[in-house]
Amino acid sequence: xxxxxxxxxxxxxxxxxxxxxxxxxxxxxxxxxxxxxxxxxxxxxxxxxxxxxxxxxxxxxxxxxxxxxxxxxxxxxxxxxxxxxxxxxxxxxxxxxxxxxxxxxxxxxxxxxxxxxxxxxxxxxxxxxxxxxxxxxxxxxxxxxxxxxxxxxxxxxxxxxxxxxxxxxxxxxxxxxxxxxxxxxxxxxxxxxxxxxxxxxxxxxxxxxxxx
Length: 212
Ligand SMILES: N[C@@H](CCC(=O)N[C@@H](CS)C(=O)NCC(=O)O)C(=O)O
What we know:
By secondary structure, the chain is of the alpha+beta class. It has 2 domains: 7-84 and 197-211, Glutaredoxin; 90-192, Glutathione S-transferase Yfyf (Class Pi), Chain A, domain 2. Helices cover 49% and strands 10% of the residues. A 5-stranded mixed beta sheet has the order 4-3-1-2-5, with helices on one face. The structure holds glutathione. Residues 15-17, 39, 44, 56-59, 70-72 line the site of glutathione (GSH). Glutathione is lined by residues 15-17, 39, 44, 56-59, 70-72.
């Protein structure tokens, strides 16, 4: 009998969208179960997974009889229900969600370029070239936003930081970097110094796993 209070995250080790809630859980030290979804084999399009996620994607979080999809909805839920990585004022809580909405518009270009580079050699170069300026502009925007700041919102790390960093984490696989973006690079160092931090290939298992 599954404990309804136990968090269950369905995801994939190659997925930045899965990494976002996975990073939240790892940094929080919360116990959870991980269920792997093999994207290469197309398990995300099979009826059992579509019953959880109508979009045929990862991640999915199950908790207390609820089924949540969309990584930023999951981050919002985790922050609200656990109080971790939540901003302290109502204005900052709204700002954190504003960053997540922007991330979904803009940093998604970074994920797209990386996706084509890593998984879709069949995609014509012109298509990748179309998305690359938007990806680079998103990285520049984050860098400027962090000039003089430790975190995107308030004085502490919030879901805004985890969501934005989690989505851009695979940028090197798409030929992008923070090398000439010192404020964003320092922010990444701060994240990487947090207890429990790990990069996706070290954090997300290839098999089902229990954490805590
Ligand atoms: N907006 C969604 C994006 C989810 C997404 O793109 N997931 C990818 C992996 S990062 C996926 O499941 N791809 C497999 C597919 O679309 O078939 C979120 O934030 O959760």
